Amino acid sequence: MKGTLYVVATPIGNLADASPRALEVLRSVELIACEDTRVTRTLLARNGIERPLVALHEHNEREAAAKILEVLASGRSAALVSDAGTPAISDPGAHLVARAHREGARVSPVPGPSAAAAAYSAAGFGEARFFFAGFLPASGAARRKALEALDAPWPIVLYEAPHRIERTLLDLAERLGAEREVAIGRELTKKFEETVRLPLGEAPAWLAAVPQRAQGEFVLVLAPGAEKAAPAALDADGVLDALLEALAPSEAAKIAARITGLPKNELYRRALARRK
After folding, report:
1. Beta carbons of 219 and 119 less than 8 angstroms apart
2. 133 CB contacts (<8 Å, ≥6 apart)?
3. Residue 183 and residue 59: Cα distance in Å, rounded?
4. How far is CA 83 from the centre of its chain?
């Protein structure tokens, strides 16, 4: 029997947010894979837990994953945590989880804090869905392309680092318009937590009003954009007429289906009728 890999959510700031089940799992496993051993050791020490730790971060994930998989292969269990929140969401861990699945280990999530979910719950946009975009690329064509993709008809959740927050707010206002609303979550669940909702055009001034606001971790929730107009429906009969000038009904129906998105069988019946 292979062991179990527990994917354990940990607090995003306030250590009291650790769930009883998460702490129980961390006490029980053979080994804990964590992003930064110093951060995880603080959480464990607060709760009287002593377990072996192995660092697993973006620079060593493949090598560290091999150690965890050895534990699982022996029938023992291990836990995966990140510095804050739910692992493998804009944090290392997805490679380890994927390999654990492939090698037949049991993977069990221990849900809990998530900065994206916390910020969205405090934004008040009320949509049934949102798009999680993680961190934007730092610069260049990749950043421009990512910004263009944010003009969507549903809320967008972004993470941002303190040294890029001002530039990101300016870029968003330029790309999406100064009137588009944004909810800014800063240092969520921590001592200096702030959550504000305001137009993008006012966000840089809000950030600059208090020098300390440029510090800490940020989650941005963009209001949904306007619904995109649906493209005009294609004239299926017109497409068929043009294709039937050069093709047999079956071929015309096949190509018309690709163009219009309508079922090929329906278009074939139409093509036969128009040929008659």
Report:
1. yes
2. 146, 149, 150, 156, 157, 158
3. 32
4. 17
Query: Could you tell me the two tokens for 63?
Result: 């090598």
Q: How crowded is residue 95: how many other Cβ atoms within 10 Å of its Cβ?
A: 15
Q: How many other β-carbons are positioned within 10 Å of the β-carbon of residue 250?
A: 12
pTM for this prediction: 0.78
Residue with tokens 């090598």: 63
Asked if 267 contacts 253 with a C-beta cutoff of 8 angstroms, the reply is: yes
Residue 269 has, within 13 A of its CA and on its CB side, a CA count of 4
Give the chain's domains with CATH numbers: 4-113 (3.40.1010.10), 116-222 (3.30.950.10), 236-275 (no CATH)
Structure tokens at 269: 């019946």
pLDDT digits (tens, 9 = 90+) for 25-35: 999 999 999 99
189/89 Cα distance (integer angstroms) = 18
